[in-house]
Design a protein that fits this description.
Layout: H1 2-7, H2 16-24, H3 31-48, H4 53-65, H5 75-93, H6 105-121, E1 128-129, E2 133-134, H7 137-149, H8 159-172, H9 181-194, H10 200-209, H11 217-239, H12 245-257
Antiparallel strand pairs: 1-2
Helix pairs in contact: 2-4, 3-5, 5-7, 6-7, 6-8, 7-8, 7-9, 8-9, 9-11, 10-12, 11-12
Length: 258
């Protein structure tokens, strides 16, 4: 572990054994190891090109061997595997990266499907824990979905499924988001629009179709999350200067009825 800590300050290539150790500890309960060593190392590796394309491919395969998104795995492993998958998709999509297009079609399809499934399957929406640190399942799931939906190979016809995954996530909540998760979720439809994978008319229709019950006490927390999500969506669209009058009115109508 000491060697891996030292490597964060160098540009030395990583060995297969070191990659295996990082992968094994991706969901380590100690946030210092998980965040400051494991995740930081993966970022260091891919941003500085410290493994070969073949090693990157093997890392993906190794991450999938344990079925990391199964509910039988720990919440931390699921959440932080999302971040690794974000990195894999991002460098695969980056024309200036040495890992550009290192994934094959089957690999991409697998990751695209996993990201659509994750927010609908996950049942632990923990944000922060005093002992475990940042768990951030919803935020990391949102980051994974954003990386996938922004990928040039992600089919535009799947954009409605992306929206549905977000809505499902919002409807599954039993408490108010506590760590900005709604901001990360709202980024996704914004970039679908910016990347021309949805039209402003489609997004307007989706917002108009939102239907959240408000009859039980638990519904109130979901309503609050929806309000915060829509407010963030509104301001992010406005910030990127793509807020049309129709979308703005649709969002305002939904916030008012909430």
């Amino acid at each position: 572990m000491e060697e891996l800590i030292e490597k964060l300050q160098t540009s030395k290539p990583y060995t297969n054994d070191e990659l295996a150790w990082l992968l094994e500890n991706i969901g380590h309960p100690d946030p210092t190891i998980r965040d400051e060593l494991v995740y930081a190392s993966f970022c260091h590796i891919f941003l500085d090109g410290l493994i070969t394309r073949e090693q990157a491919q093997e890392l993906l395969q190794g991450s999938q061997d344990t079925k990391p998104f199964s509910l039988e795995c720990s919440t931390l492993k699921r959440s932080f595997t999302c971040l690794l998958c974000c990195l894999l998709l991002s460098v695969d999509n980056d024309s200036e990266s040495i890992y550009h297009a290192f994934l094959n079609d089957e690999d991409r399809e697998l990751l695209f499907q996993q990201t659509l499934d994750y927010l609908t399957i996950e049942n632990d929406w923990s944000g922060f824990d005093e002992k475990l640190g940042w768990i951030h399942t919803a935020a990391h799931g949102a980051d994974f979905l954003l990386a996938a939906s922004c990928h040039e190979q992600f089919p535009a016809e799947n954009s409605k499924k992306v929206w549905q995954a977000i809505v499902t996530c919002l409807k599954k909540q039993k408490q108010v988001f506590s760590a900005g998760e709604e901001i990360r979720l709202a980024q996704i439809p914004v970039y679908l629009l910016l990347n021309e994978k949805v039209t402003s008319q489609e997004l307007t229709e989706w917002v108009n179709e939102l239907d959240f019950p408000n009859q039980e006490p638990l519904d109130y927390f979901r309503w609050l999350n929806l309000q915060h999500f829509l407010s963030s969506l509104y301001f992010q669209l406005n910030s990127h200067q793509v807020l049309t009058e129709e979308i703005g009115q649709a969002i305002e109508n939904r916030i008012e009825t909430a």
